[in-house]
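Lab manual, section 2.4: Encoding a predicted structure.

Procedure: take the sequence of the chain (330 residues), apply the prediction step described in section 2.3, and record the output as structure tokens. A sample record is shown.
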Amino acid sequence: MLKFNKKRLHDSHETTWFILDFLMLGLLVINLTFIIFDSLYLTDYFKATLDFISPTISEFYQPFHNNFILIDLVFVSIFFTEFCVRWVVAIRRKEYLRWYFFPFIHWYDLVGCIPLGATRIFRFLRIFSILYRLQKYQIIDLTNTGVFKFITFYYDVFIEELSDRIVVKVLSDAQKDLRSGSPLLDDIASKVILTRKETLTEWVSSILVHAGSSIEDEHAGLMIRDHVKGSVSKAMRGNSEISRLKLVPVLGSSIEQTLETAVADIVIQSVVHLLKDMSPQKINYLVHHGITVTSIQEKTLDKEVIQIVDECIELLKGHVSNQRWKTHLE
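Recorded output:
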């Protein structure tokens, strides 16, 4: 049901213009009804139907039909005058960046003022623009009307179907490009990763330095230090050379425990210093000279990455193709 909000009309301080909108809306309905009726009057079947209902109807309307152009020009003059007034007001209020933007933005109003059969159809758009303006300022509420819900639903269906097909087409083309041996990974490495090499190396360096500081911290690194000490102790106990220290009378066990503690501390400090000393320059050198992969491994990895990307795109296509609007009907 259409709702009219008088309070919003009063608070908007645009009462005069909204009254003008309602007046123009009424004139548009009359004008379009007149145009449709006159177009039907040109057909023999419609004229015969009017004569069957009452011959006086046809006789009464005949003078209006003969002067259709003049009558339509009266409506056109009113619409064009209102268009010019709004243009002047828009210029004074500086609603647009340039004074000549108004006729381009409201082109349908201007084209609809041309008294030709093909251009009169644009007067329908003028009705929608007025209703949209009233809805925008919450003077009227069309959201609960059946017509609005019907148009909104099928508009969403149209947009969803159209956008889904476009997205699926784009993703399918991307898949074909990948499957045909597209140098995507090389482009990512050269155009994306390498261009941000300094940022990435600084980021990795900051993470490693932070990790080293965390291990060195008395509380944050306690779990890692205990794990390292346990691993060192287990390794030393399994070493036959270290186990012989137990054979030393009296001091054997003490020497073994002291050695375990010393080695664990040395390992922990070595790891901490290694992490904290990893500058961006060292990471950059490690990437260029320290990490090597055989060509066979590179090709296998490239194929796996491309396969993963392809499967992800396929899943994305299936998700996009899901017609969500059908759930509303169900």
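Check your result against the sample. The first strand starts at residue 3 and ends at 4.
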